[in-house]
């Protein structure tokens, strides 16, 4: 086998992934509860994939209610090596038109009502989020998206808002002044949790609308988003399969950014004072670093 096992988190409009060989569905449980839905696993040649619809099939979960910790833990427990998010997003800049893709590499987290860490009392950890995205995975995903005809902008800042309401005009203008490129409701704390689980993470943010800041363009609605996402989804599916095809024959090596060992520099609680219950719970995502 190539050693690649891609975890794919499908966002709005992407609730299933066809075309996998040896397709299986597993209902799983994690120490943080059940993930958004059953995991669907399969392979393309030698590359394994595990698909999870972020909002559940039929889009049952709000961005606030998505069980981000359980989702990342379920993918880690399934043995995935890398996590690629596919997300709908609003454009905050003229140059990102609906139908195009931003391979975002930075985030601003404005979410306020979510569990954002696996750590806690009895086992404290602080990972670096200076480079929140795995540059290698992001480039591979961007290449795959371009190979199937997508227009990709490499790099960009994704503003994660709480939602579920879309932004006011004043907020949208503020985020533009901050230099943000796209806006969505889900990539945080997902990217933070992936890092805590030592999983390389990247996102293809698929532009569906111009939010509400652009003169003479109607403000975003779910109807606009789903209309564009219907076209984007076909492209996203092709890009995922292309990514897997492109990795066949390339044995996986560790991420050049050291993401798979980042907890070596993150755990601060004195070993003899660590809470055994927390250690046991964290075994699922941090067993390597904890030596359990
Ligand atoms: C249906 S529009 C708003 C919704 O779409 C995006 O979700 P995802 O990132 O899972 O594609 C956005 O973040 C909101 O959750
Ligand atoms: N304009 C927008 N704001 C937040 N999330 C979105 N998802 C898609 N479009 C969005």
UniProtKB/TrEMBL annotation:
<dbReference type="InterPro" id="IPR018099">
    <property type="entry name" value="Purine_phosphorylase-2_CS"/>
</dbReference>
<feature type="site" description="Important for substrate specificity">
    <location>
        <position position="222"/>
    </location>
</feature>
<dbReference type="InterPro" id="IPR000845">
    <property type="entry name" value="Nucleoside_phosphorylase_d"/>
</dbReference>
<feature type="binding site">
    <location>
        <begin position="87"/>
        <end position="88"/>
    </location>
    <ligand>
        <name>phosphate</name>
    </ligand>
</feature>
<dbReference type="InterPro" id="IPR010044">
    <property type="entry name" value="MTAP"/>
</dbReference>
<dbReference type="GO" id="GO:0017061">
    <property type="term" value="F:S-methyl-5-thioadenosine phosphorylase activity"/>
</dbReference>
<feature type="binding site">
    <location>
        <begin position="209"/>
        <end position="211"/>
    </location>
    <ligand>
        <name>substrate</name>
    </ligand>
</feature>
<feature type="binding site">
    <location>
        <position position="12"/>
    </location>
    <ligand>
        <name>phosphate</name>
    </ligand>
</feature>
<dbReference type="GO" id="GO:0005829">
    <property type="term" value="C:cytosol"/>
</dbReference>
<comment type="subunit">
    <text>Homohexamer. Dimer of a homotrimer.</text>
</comment>
<dbReference type="GO" id="GO:0006166">
    <property type="term" value="P:purine ribonucleoside salvage"/>
</dbReference>
<comment type="pathway">
    <text>Amino-acid biosynthesis; L-methionine biosynthesis via salvage pathway; S-methyl-5-thio-alpha-D-ribose 1-phosphate from S-methyl-5'-thioadenosine (phosphorylase route): step 1/1.</text>
</comment>
<keyword id="KW-0808">Transferase</keyword>
<dbReference type="Pfam" id="PF01048">
    <property type="entry name" value="PNP_UDP_1"/>
</dbReference>
<feature type="site" description="Important for substrate specificity">
    <location>
        <position position="167"/>
    </location>
</feature>
<dbReference type="InterPro" id="IPR035994">
    <property type="entry name" value="Nucleoside_phosphorylase_sf"/>
</dbReference>
<comment type="similarity">
    <text>Belongs to the PNP/MTAP phosphorylase family. MTAP subfamily.</text>
</comment>
<feature type="binding site">
    <location>
        <begin position="54"/>
        <end position="55"/>
    </location>
    <ligand>
        <name>phosphate</name>
    </ligand>
</feature>
<feature type="binding site">
    <location>
        <position position="186"/>
    </location>
    <ligand>
        <name>phosphate</name>
    </ligand>
</feature>
<comment type="function">
    <text>Catalyzes the reversible phosphorylation of S-methyl-5'-thioadenosine (MTA) to adenine and 5-methylthioribose-1-phosphate. Involved in the breakdown of MTA, a major by-product of polyamine biosynthesis. Responsible for the first step in the methionine salvage pathway after MTA has been generated from S-adenosylmethionine. Has broad substrate specificity with 6-aminopurine nucleosides as preferred substrates.</text>
</comment>
<feature type="domain" description="Nucleoside phosphorylase">
    <location>
        <begin position="5"/>
        <end position="235"/>
    </location>
</feature>
<dbReference type="GO" id="GO:0019509">
    <property type="term" value="P:L-methionine salvage from methylthioadenosine"/>
</dbReference>
<keyword id="KW-0328">Glycosyltransferase</keyword>
<feature type="binding site">
    <location>
        <position position="185"/>
    </location>
    <ligand>
        <name>substrate</name>
    </ligand>
</feature>
<protein>
    <recommendedName>
        <fullName>S-methyl-5'-thioadenosine phosphorylase</fullName>
        <ecNumber>2.4.2.28</ecNumber>
    </recommendedName>
</protein>
<keyword id="KW-0660">Purine salvage</keyword>
């Amino acid at each position: 086998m190539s050693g690649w096992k891609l975890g794919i988190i499908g966002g709005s409009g992407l609730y299933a992934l066809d075309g996998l060989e040896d397709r299986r569905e597993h209902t799983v449980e994690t120490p943080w509860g059940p993930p958004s839905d059953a995991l669907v696993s399969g392979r393309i040649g030698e590359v394994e994939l595990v698909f999870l619809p972020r909002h559940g099939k039929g889009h049952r979960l709000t961005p606030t209610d998505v069980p981000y910790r359980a989702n990342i833990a379920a993918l880690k427990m399934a043995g995935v090596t890398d996590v690629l998010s596919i997300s709908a997003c609003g454009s905050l800049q003229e140059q990102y038109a609906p139908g195009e893709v931003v391979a975002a590499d930075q985030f601003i987290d404005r979410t306020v009502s979510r569990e954002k860490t696996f750590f806690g009392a009895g086992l404290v950890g602080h990972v670096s989020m200076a480079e929140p995205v795995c540059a290698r995975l992001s480039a591979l995903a961007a290449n795959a998206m371009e190979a199937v005809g997508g227009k990709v902008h490499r790099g960009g800042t994704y503003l994660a808002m709480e939602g579920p309401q879309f932004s006011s005009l004043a907020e949208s203008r503020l985020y533009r002044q901050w230099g943000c490129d796209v806006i969505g409701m889900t990539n945080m704390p997902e990217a933070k949790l992936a890092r805590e689980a030592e999983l390389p993470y990247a996102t293809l943010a698929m532009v569906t609308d111009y939010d509400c800041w652009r003169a003479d363009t109607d403000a975003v609605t779910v109807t606009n988003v789903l209309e564009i996402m219907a076209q984007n989804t076909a492209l996203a599916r092709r890009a995922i399969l292309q990514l897997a095809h492109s990795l066949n024959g390339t044995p996986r090596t560790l991420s050049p950014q050291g993401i798979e060992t980042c907890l070596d520099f993150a755990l601060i609680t004195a070993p003899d004072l660590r809470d055994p219950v927390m250690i046991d719970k964290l075994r699922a995502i941090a067993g390597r670093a904890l030596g359990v």
